[in-house]
């Protein structure tokens, strides 16, 4: 039987122009990794920054199935270097999977290493606890709960609304566990604020701004579930926009403001811009028409795919095409039972979507699908998509970008192997090096 090591090395050999770091990172993101108890954190009381569960669970098991990792959280991210593949510094978001062939533990010298099939393949660095996580808001809430940072401290992730109004099997996106993640944290008795008050967000940002003396934090993302009616009397553009307005009034230009929201009509998009948002992520999720209709039933019913795409193009007139960066979930194209059965077909479809947007100056980006077990697609595809798909997508993404004369999108920090901090896919690790 082919081992995971054989698979990884075979793909590294077949695609020598894709950085080895990216091959490993994609495999860790699609399949998760296990942790020895010694590599877990002491939650908010230790020296290592814990996993904040900033929007989705991004785990391969439910919390009760994670064992010690449910009590002592794993780190938010790990950084890999060295080992037999000579890895340059690679930041990887942590997706826990107790049965993964990848395991973080200590070697006989007491050093933290990443093991694959029992063999050490990288040195592991853990994110230090940021000074701002050691402070709480006046009401006792933690900064990690209200304004967690990811991407090695680059991005403040503000999930203002922790649930989605696309609710239940007929509306929720079939790969998304936002609503389940909210439920499981509530059931575990963890603090998990459904709607974050603007004042709390400002107070948490004040603490970050005061203690982030190196100014590692460069951007914030406002996001959460879709709003099909209202939250606190506000529709989607005004609900998410109110946070940007307050942040920009209090800390003008301190961070790049981004919003991940639905593809809204042009007047609403203009309001985002007027509130001070500079980058807009109207995620199109999956390109193929049939799969979009099946996987995003709520979006299809309320907006529809063609209208969604038209609104993305419209928003480029408001934000400028460089600043419209719609996401897709890389890998769901190949999910059984409805997805493509060959990597060739899946890559061809995804590339058609990249071409569509990139030919208009809009640069999509992608996150690597994590098949969370409580989602319909995660249940039927616990292994996720084939690693070959993910590696070839990196190749296709860069080639399409080159063909249209585009470069790495703004708001993601530096690009290039050894430099990238974007942690939930390796597209930034695969592009030519930049400073920021
Ligand atoms: S719109 Fe879909 S992907 Fe976004 S939060 Fe709602 S269910 Fe999840």
List the SSEs and their pairings.
Layout: H1 4-14, H2 20-31, E1 34-35, H3 68-71, E2 77-82, E3 87-93, E4 102-106, E5 112-116, E6 119-125, H4 143-146, E7 149-150, E8 155-161, H5 178-187, H6 198-211, E9 219-224, H7 236-250, E10 256-261, H8 266-275, E11 279-282, H9 289-295, H10 297-302, H11 305-319, E12 327-330, H12 343-358, E13 365-368, H13 376-380, H14 387-403, H15 427-430
Parallel strand pairs: 1-4, 8-9, 9-10, 10-11, 12-13
Antiparallel strand pairs: 2-3, 2-6, 4-5, 5-6, 7-8
Helix pairs in contact: 2-14, 6-7, 7-8, 8-11, 12-14
In short:
It contains 15 helices and 13 strands.
Key features?
34% helix, 2 domains, six-stranded mixed sheet, TIM Barrel, binds iron/sulfur cluster, single chain, 436 residues, five-stranded mixed sheet, 15 helices, alpha/beta
Structure notes:
- This protein has two domains: 4-125, no CATH class; 131-430, Alpha-Beta Barrel (TIM Barrel).
- It contains 15 helices and 13 strands.
- It has helices at residues 4-14, 20-31, 68-71, 143-146, 178-187, 198-211, 236-250, 266-275, 289-295, 297-302, 305-319, 343-358, 376-380, 387-403, 427-430; strands spanning 34-35, 77-82, 87-93, 102-106, 112-116, 119-125, 149-150, 155-161, 219-224, 256-261, 279-282, 327-330, 365-368.
- A hairpin with a 4-residue loop joins strand 7 (149-150) and strand 8.
- Helix 7 (236-250) runs parallel beside helix 8 (266-275).
- The protein is globular and about 60 Å long.
- The model has no long low-confidence stretch (mean pLDDT 97).
- Bound molecules: iron/sulfur cluster.
- Residues 164, 166, 172-173, 176, 178, 225-226 line the site of iron/sulfur cluster.
- This is Radical SAM protein.
- InterPro entries: rSAM_sf.
């Amino acid at each position: 039987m082919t081992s995971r090591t054989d698979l990884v090395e075979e793909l590294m050999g077949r695609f020598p122009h894709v950085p080895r770091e990216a091959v490993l990172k994609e495999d860790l993101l699609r399949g998760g990794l296990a942790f020895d108890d010694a590599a877990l954190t002491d939650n908010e009381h230790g020296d290592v920054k814990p996993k904040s569960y900033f929007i989705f669970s991004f785990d391969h098991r439910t919390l009760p199935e994670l064992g010690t990792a449910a009590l002592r959280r794993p780190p938010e991210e790990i950084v890999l270097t060295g080992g037999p593949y000579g890895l340059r510094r690679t930041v990887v978001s942590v997706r826990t999977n107790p049965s993964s062939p990848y395991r973080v533990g200590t070697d006989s010298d007491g050093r933290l290493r990443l093991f694959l099939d029992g063999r050490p393949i990288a040195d592991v660095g853990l994110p230090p606890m940021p000074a701002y996580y050691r402070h709480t808001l006046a009401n006792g809430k933690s900064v990690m709960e209200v304004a967690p940072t990811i991407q090695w401290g680059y991005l403040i992730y503000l999930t203002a609304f922790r649930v989605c109004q696309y609710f239940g099997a007929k509306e929720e996106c079939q790969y998304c566990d936002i609503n389940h993640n909210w439920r499981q944290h509530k059931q575990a008795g963890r603090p998990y604020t459904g709607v974050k008050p603007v004042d709390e967000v400002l107070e948490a940002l004040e603490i970050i701004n005061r203690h982030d003396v190196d100014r590692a934090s460069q951007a914030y993302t406002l996001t959460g579930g879709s709003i099909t009616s209202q939250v606190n009397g506000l529709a989607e553009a005004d609900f998410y926009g109110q946070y940007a307005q307050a942040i920009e009034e209090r800390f003008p230009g301190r961070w790049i403001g981004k919003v991940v929201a639905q593809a809204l009509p042009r007047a609403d998009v203009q309001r985002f811009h007027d509130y001070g948002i500079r980058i807009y992520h109207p995620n199109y999720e999956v390109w193929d028409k049939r799969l979009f209709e099946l996987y995003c039933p709520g979006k299809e019913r309320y907006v529809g795919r063609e209208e969604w795409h038209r609104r993305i193009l419209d928003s480029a007139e408001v934000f400028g095409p460089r600043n419209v960066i719609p996401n897709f979930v890389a890998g769901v194209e190949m999910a059984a039972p409805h997805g493509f059965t060959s990597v060739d077909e899946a890559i061809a479809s995804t590339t058609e979507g990249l071409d569509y947007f990139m030919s208009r100056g809009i640069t999509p980006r992608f996150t690597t699908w994590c098949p969370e077990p409580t989602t319909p697609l995660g249940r039927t595809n616990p292994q996720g998509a084939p690693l070959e798909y993910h590696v070839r997508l990196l190749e296709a993404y860069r080639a399409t970008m080159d063909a249209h004369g585009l470069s790495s999108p703004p708001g993601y920090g530096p690009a290039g192997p050894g430099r990238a901090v974007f942690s939930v896919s390796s597209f930034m690790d695969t592009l030519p090096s930049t400073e920021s």
